[in-house]
Amino acid sequence: MAFQNQTLGEFIIENQSAFSFSTGELSRLINSIRLAAKVVNHEVNKAGLVDIIGSSGNINVQGESQQKLDVFANEIFIKTLTHREIVCGIASEECDDFLRVEGNTESSNNHYVVLMDPLDGSSNIDVNVSVGTIFSIYRRVSSAGTPVVLEDFLQPGNRQVAAGYVIYGTSTMLVYTTGHGVNGFTLNPAIGTFYLSHPNIRIPENGQIYSVNEGNYIHFPQGVKNYIKYCQEEKENRPYTSRYIGSLVSDIHRNMIKGGIYLYPQTSASPNGKLRLLYECNPMAFVVEQAGGEASDGGQRILDIIPGELHQRTPFYCGSKNMVAKLLEYVA
Ligand code: AHG
Ligand code: MN
Ligand code: MN
User: Fold this and answer.
1) Rounded mean pLDDT of 45-74?
2) Residue 86: CB atoms within 10 Å
3) How confident is the model over 20-59, as pLDDT tens digits?
4) Which helix (H) or strand (E) holds 225?
5) Which CATH number fits domain 8-198: 3.30.540.10, 3.40.50.510, 3.40.50.970, 2.60.120.10?
6) Pocket probe mutation, ligand 1, options 119, 275, 279, max atoms within 8 Å of Cβ
7) Ligand 3 centre from 281 Cα, in Å?
8) What is the DSSP string of 163-212?
């Protein structure tokens, strides 16, 4: 089929006009993410051969041990985005505060900020299991030509202009949306080119997979415990299958293709759950909604949450529309 011959570069140019603020700036930004993804992919792929496995010895602002690949991916994405001077600000899960990109006067005239989880699923790096990158793009709210401010980053997810993820899996894919559906591109590693392999991804409305770290079961809210029992009940098309990789990108990507629900609830010890609203939940929620699915914190739509701080966490329930609706009956 013709679309399988279309490269990501061609796709970006062809769809540039569908974007309401089209100046080419967003296209250049997605092109930079594409480039950084290839560099990180290259490193992830030889992780067993070079000294990139293991801890960097640092603890990040969230109190988590940084892996060498976390640090590497963070640097690559930041460098690629700043050297090209196409964003005015960057916020990363691995940086304490947001960064201003103001290399020259032209750069501060840029309109977009990027928020990212440069390496998602770090606990899987050392064991050759899929990891990913998540990115989220907003138009700044402060005036162009001035330094970016915190408010540029603390926008609700419904203001995202683009978001997506890269999955470094059995094949490497880049999946993203600009608010007109979701498209997936697979890297041909021999020639270093992403090709449109999954046009207009639609997440099935129903599914039979639930993904949750069930080791935390004892600490979950009662509604979530009851929902998990519902998933395991022998009735109609249940029990469902349990699949949990421990890389959000991989768990959501599988559910996007096969149908399913992903749960990361709050626990008594972590009343806001673990996942980060700005770097993980908003971008994944935007992609999943654009594919026809739903994402909620148990009380409201993820994309409608007004963020109060950069590293804010939230409970996260995301996936096939009817599965999330059923979960909400239990936790409401
Ligand atoms: P990160 O590697 O960016 O810190 O994210 C890890 C996240 C997410 O990828 C995954 O779904 C979740 O943490 C797994 O957490 P548990 O180990 O608590 O299940
Ligand atoms: Mn993550
Ligand atoms: Mn991470």
Assistant:
1) 84
2) 23
3) 676 688 899 999 999 999 999 999 888 777 777 788 888 8
4) helix 222-232
5) 3.30.540.10
6) 275
7) 12
8) EEEEEESSSEEEEEESSS-EEEEEEETTTTEEEEEETT----SS-SEEE-
Instruction: Give residue ranges with CB within 6 A of ligand 1.
Output: 64, 93, 117, 120-123, 213, 246-248, 274
Q: Which CATH architecture has domain 209-331?
A: 3-Layer(aba) Sandwich (3.40)
Q: How far apart are CA 88 and CA 243, in angstroms?
A: 39
List 138's β-bridge partners, or say none: 113, 160
Q: Average pLDDT, whole number, for the chain? A: 93
Taking 50 as the threshold, does the pLDDT of residue 2 lie above it? no
What are the sequence ranges of the domains in the chain?
Answer: 8-198, 209-331
Give the integer Cα–Cα distance in Å for 161 and 157: 9
> And the tokens for 312?
């804010």
Rounded average pLDDT over 123-128:
88
Distance CA 171, CA 267 (A): 34
Instruction: Point out the ligand 1 atom lying closest to the alpha carbon of residue 62.
Output: 4
317 DSSP β-pair partners: 263, 296
Amino acid code (one letter) for 187: L
The pLDDT of residue 108 is 65
Spatial distance between the Cα atoms of 259 and 201, rounded to a whole number of angstroms: 11
Which of 214, 248, 270, 280 gets mutated to test ligand 1 (max ligand atoms within 8 A of its CB)?
Answer: 248
Q: List, for residues 85-116, the tens digit of each pLDDT value.
A: 789 999 999 999 999 997 655 556 789 999 99
Average pLDDT value for residue range 157-183: 97
pLDDT surpasses 70 at 4: no
CA distance 259 to 243: 12
Q: How far is the CA of 38 from the centre of ligand 2 (A)?
A: 19
pLDDT over threshold 80, residue 265? yes
